[in-house]
Amino acid sequence: MRQQGWTPPSGVNYLALGLGFVVVEQAFEMALALRQRAYLRRDKLPGRLEDQVRAIDDDAAAAAPAAAPAAQEMARDEGDQDKEKSSSSSSSNNNNNKASLLEQLRSKFHKSQTYNLDKNTLSFVNMGYGMAVSAAMLLSGFNVWLWTQSEAVAQSAFGLEPASSELVVGSLFLLAQSVVGAVISMPLTIYSTFWVEAEHGFNRTTPSLFVADTLKSLAVENVIVLPLMAGIVKLVRWGGERFWLYVWGLLVGFSMVMITVYPNFIMPLFNEYKPLPDGELKSEIEKLAARLEFPLTKLYEVDGSKRSSHSNAYLYGFLRDKRIVLYDTLIKNEEEPALACTTEEVVSILAHELGHWSMSHTVKGFLLQNVVYLVAFRLFGLFLHDPDMYKSFGFVDQPVVIGLNLFSYIMAPLGTVLSIAVNAVTRKFEYEADAFAVNLGKADGLKSGLAKISIANLASFDHDPLYHAVHHSHPSLLDRLRAMDCAVEEMTHDVKKVK
Ligand SMILES: [Zn+2]
């Protein structure tokens, strides 16, 4: 469909360009997923990961004198019987309840490969479906149709002339677009949640919770996006040549407000945040925070288990008002108590998180994000008044909302390159935060804590390097364990030098 009075573009055909980008990007993603698939089909754990995890078991055994002889022997034995998934050691696990991590890893490896292979298959369906939907929408002129409908509603319901009501028409358009987007992605989200995740024992979301979540997310998204978009449209119309600078200012202000609004008002709509009960864990965390002069004001436990048994921990907050949130799934693991983190492990994981704070990773990330906004809107300024961009997609008018929408197709490759760069930076931050925890003497707790989380979450233990570089914001478990060994070595080396 095309707007009335449409004429073909005189220069570049951005529609063809946008379509080309969609195809090239999906082909690239599919090639990567195919490479990763080969690793997920392997039936043997990487030997170096086994060595690392065996070393964690050895350290734990050495640190616990009473249980040491039995546990140490057990860990050694396993090293020799590579292929045998021995049943003998599981009985000794029960005896001292401190199951060998290597044993856990081996017993979960096959499950993890199947789980990640299923997710990989789903990603192909997702990519194929996404490509088909995008192509159909672009070729049919769906956005032109949706815009025309929004104009008709503005006219019939509010008696507004389309030409003088860009804000109302734009809002109706975005509202409809978010609903259409949710409907289109629904079948695959349902399949992922209620089949893939459920089959592998992670899903805890009930159908009614799923419906409530979907409606709430849609409502929240629109309550936030519509006023923001209205602000952007106003500034673009008012700001003239330099509009991109004003819009950028608005976005910086907006993201600063969201730092407070999001965790305090939006996340509680979806989860329950309870203060962490008094006890050893709480006092150990408070001790660590005090040692680092971290201005901890609240310590929460969140019911992550309401939706999924995947586990996590994070911190947030402004200046002198910081909060720490622990997923209940990190502390408790009813199905597999051996994979629940101990107090020392949770504290070590938080030492890593506090490393992010201490080295200003969040602030750096925030600055980086705002540089990206600035560049994006500066570039948008180059396309805003280009009639060919609008004509290519079937438009005659040049509404700001549509301009931004079409611009996103043209900028897609830049977005991909940028996300690869952001992942690389994030991985570097992860290594730095690990080293920070190591320097606080938390190497052992962090190593075993991370191993437990990876095993419990059925992380993929083997990666195609290219797939990993593009998709993962965190280094692999093996890489982190090895880097921590280096950090420990460096630290002992430094200590010796000082002596
Ligand atoms: Zn981290």
TrEMBL record:
- A single Gene Ontology molecular function, please? metal ion binding
Q: Which cofactor does it need?
A: Zn(2+)
Q: Where is the composition biased (Low complexity)?
A: 61-71, 87-97
Per the record, what are the reactions this protein catalyses?
Hydrolyzes the peptide bond -P2-(S-farnesyl or geranylgeranyl)C-P1'-P2'-P3'-COOH where P1' and P2' are amino acids with aliphatic side chains and P3' is any C-terminal residue
Q: Where does Zn(2+) bind?
A: 352, 356, 430
Keywords per UniProt? Endoplasmic reticulum, Hydrolase, Membrane, Metal-binding, Metalloprotease, Protease, Transmembrane, Transmembrane helix, Zinc
Spell out the protein name for this chain. CAAX prenyl protease
Organism, scientific name: Hondaea fermentalgiana
